[in-house]
Amino acid sequence: MSILETIPRLQERIKNELSGCNPQVWTECPLDDYIRCLDRYPPLARWSYVSRDVLQYGNKIRGMAGEEGLGLYHQALLLALIARASEQLPAKNFPADIPSLYEEHFGRIVRGIEQKSHGPGFYVPPRCCKDLTICTFRAVPAGMQLLYPFRLPRAPFLKPPLRRIVSWIRFVGRFGGLGPFYEMHTHSDDTRGLLEFTRAGAARMYRRAAAMLRRNASFKGLIGGSWINDPALESISPRLAAVATIATDNGARLFCLGPCNAHGIEDATQFSHERRQLYQEGKYTPMEYFLVWPRKELLSWAEKQDLPIAP
Ligand SMILES: CC(C)(COP(=O)(O)OP(=O)(O)OC[C@H]1O[C@@H](n2cnc3c(N)ncnc32)[C@H](O)[C@@H]1OP(=O)(O)O)[C@@H](O)C(=O)NCCC(=O)NCCS
């Protein structure tokens, strides 16, 4: 059964479950009103951005149906958005295999709802924000990661030393402004994406990013901050380091933002015995590096990759 055939059945199930919390929710908080609020989001916004309208709407639903009801409401919302996005997708004129990556994500989200795979809180912002951005086309799925239209961050670079501030202002000046760029973000619920953290998977994503840049002439390049960009990984985790070195060997620039916070340390050490041990022995400190791959350099790398993108 296709996802478009599955959606009405799931919507019916959720409607009944949410009516058990409070039947008034459907009449007082119509999905269409919520969707109109999402459609008013600014074109450049963080993946976790929640507008005041949406916050108020969510609070109203929570007040009427509780946390469980809010989670059910968001499941119905995601399904309605997927039904709409599936119709809109062919006319969006995305490059090459981006539409099929959208369809994979839609399938993953629908299966998660159908199989009740996720625990309490999963369908409440900020937990469900990345899925909402996919279903409203604010995120572009590119395989290994999602791409978000965004701008260069200011705060991390405007801290002393003065040398760093001056070098950053010069760098930004070269671009004629802070954006827009495509910003890379990992989606930890996207198992297929996580398996793409290899040299080949990263190359596939960078070529998709290049294709997006070609379609969008005003975009200045690709950006992203992560512990994965740390050059120290070249000796500790060479397989994973290739994700960043493809870019840095081909014109991307790295800016060290300092040691990772507790969340970044957890990300960097949880799946690797080697990194965890080195961290515990004080021989590895996860560091946050911000990568900027300017448009010209990324497109010039992409032009040299003449093989078709493997599925
Ligand atoms: C980002 C992430 C997906 C990369 O995962 P990964 O592909 O497993 O890469 P890692 O280098 O961390 O691999 C983990 C372990 O599996 C091993 N491994 C990975 N692929 C392997 C393969 N094909 N064959 C054998 N071993 C392999 C690695 O050697 C490593 O173990 P070790 O360091 O003790 O030797 C993963 O670290 C993650 O999910 N982190 C949390 C989320 C996160 O960091 N998000 C932000 C990213 S920007």
Structure in words:
This protein is α+β, with helices and mostly antiparallel strands and 311 residues long. The protein folds into two domains: 3-135, no CATH class; 142-303, 3-Layer(aba) Sandwich (Aminopeptidase), CATH 3.40.630. The chain is 55% helix and 11% strand. The protein contains 14 helices and six strands. A six-stranded mixed sheet has the order 1-2-3-4-6-5. The protein is globular, with a radius of gyration of 21 Å. The two termini are 23 Å apart. Coenzyme A is lined by residues 186, 188, 194, 197, 226, 228, 237, 239-240, 267, 271-275.
Compact summary:
This protein is of the alpha+beta class and 311 residues long. The protein is built from 14 helices and 6 strands. Strands 1-2-3-4-6-5 form a 6-stranded mixed sheet.
Keywords:
binds coenzyme A; six-stranded mixed sheet; globular; 14 helices; 55% helix; Aminopeptidase; 311 residues; single chain; alpha+beta
Molecular shape: globular
Task: Enumerate the strands of the largest sheet in spatial order, edge to edge or round the barrel.
Answer: 1-2-3-4-6-5
Bound ligand species: coenzyme A
User: What percent of the residues sit in helical stretches (DSSP H or I)?
Assistant: 40-55%
Characterize the quaternary organization of these chains. Answer: single chain
Beta strands, count = 6
β-strand amount: 5-15%
Q: So how many helices?
A: 14
End-to-end distance: 23 Å
What is the CATH C level class of the largest domain, in words? Alpha Beta
Give the topology.
Layout: H1 3-21, H2 24-28, H3 31-39, H4 52-88, H5 98-114, H6 129-135, E1 140-141, E2 146-150, H7 162-175, E3 181-185, H8 191-194, H9 199-215, E4 221-226, H10 233-236, H11 238-248, E5 253-259, H12 262-269, H13 273-280, E6 287-294, H14 295-304
Parallel strand pairs: 3-4
Antiparallel strand pairs: 1-2, 2-3, 4-6, 5-6
The structure holds coenzyme A (COA).
Coenzyme A binds next to helix 11 and helix 13.
